[in-house]
Structure formats: structure tokens, C-alpha cells
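User: I'm preparing a small set of examples for a lab meeting where we compare how different chains pack in three dimensions. I only have the primary sequence for this one, and I'd like the structure in C-alpha cell form so I can line it up with the others. Please keep the answer compact; I'll paste it straight into my notes.
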Amino acid sequence: MLEVGVGTGRWAVPLARRGVAVVGVDLSLPMLERLRAKAGGEAVPLVQGDATALPFGDGAFEAAYVCHVLHLVPAWEQAVQELLRVVARPGVVLADFGGSQAFDALLSRALGESFDRGAGFPGLRDVAQLDETMRELGAAVRVLPGVAQRIDRPLRMVLDRFRGNQFSWTWTMTDEEREAAAARFEAWADDAVGGVDAIPYVDQEIAWHAYDLPG
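Assistant: Understood. Below is the C-alpha cell output for the 215-residue chain.
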């Protein structure tokens, strides 16, 4: 199977260790190099390539998956078409949009009730858009059973990522807007939880969507 946006192998390496034949493609050569250097990374064949123009033939894979990637791709509809092109029929494409409603709620409290994380995404804004597009392209949509996850996220880490422009939804902000948001977040933390050294947790559900391609 193919992973688009394989990054440093967070998913591909464990799957390869379990005997799944995974090929990884990513636009970022430095991330691919980190994957190659990781223990077990040698088991994953890697290709540098663009999600919107995958360097593989039609029907080259039995399945494909994409995790926390499409919100970063402005031409995400083209990336979806490419995913479907390289998967043989019948086949399946899996996707996890990512994000946490609980964490978004925390950010809404910190930054104002009008906060909309998706508004800053350069690509896909929510999984409902992906479901609709997949149906239009002939795929059947299944939502797989969710997996509960609890995340301990130090608020200082969140603040540092604000200021370092590491959140994809801050990429469209100016430096001044990003710093203003970081200052609001810091002020909220001081007032609500005793400062940015607090380590609250958020509960979220990992929800993969499966898109079945007819034969």
C-alpha cells in the first residue's frame, strides 16, 4: 500500500514491522532522510514526489492512505484524484483528517469564540468536504470505529509553536497577527490555569474514514 505524505514514518515504519508492504512518498527530502535514518526505516521504499502528481502508474497499489496531510495541500482535490488513480479496483483509500475538537475548544476559549482553526488551512478544511468529494468520484464512504486518545500538551509548547509558526493554520497570519494571538493565548493561560507551565490534557477520538473503490 502507499502512504502519501509519509514524513518521518510515524505510520509506515510500524506497519512495515508488522509485515505490511508500504511504499512512502513525500515532497520533503529532509523528512525522507530522517525516515531512512530511523530504526526500521530501511524496510520502507521511499520516493520523493508531489501528492498532486504521484510518480506511479494507474492501479499500482492495492490500497493507499493519507494522514494529517490534505489540509496542507492547496490543490487537495487533485491529490485525491491522484490517490484514486494509483489504487487498483476494487480497492480502498484511508484518510485521517486529524485535529481535536477538544483542543480546538481550548483554543477557542483562549483566542475568542470566533476562532476557526480550519480558516487558516491552505488545503482541505474538514473531513466532510473529503467525504463529499469521494462520493462524487464514485467511492463509498465508511467511518471506522473511533479510537480514544488522551493528549497531555504543555501550554508552553503550544505557545512556542504559535511563535514559531509551526501550526499550519497560522501560516496565513502576518507576524503581527500571530504574535497577537500568542499574547492572547498567554494571557488566557495566566488567568485560566495559572500560566503556560500548566499541562492540561485533551481527550480526542481518532477517526479514520475508509473510501471503498468499486471493481
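A couple of notes for your slides: Helices lie at 12-17, 29-37, 76-86, 101-111, 127-136, 155-163, 175-192. The chain has a mean pLDDT of 89.

User: Perfect, thanks.
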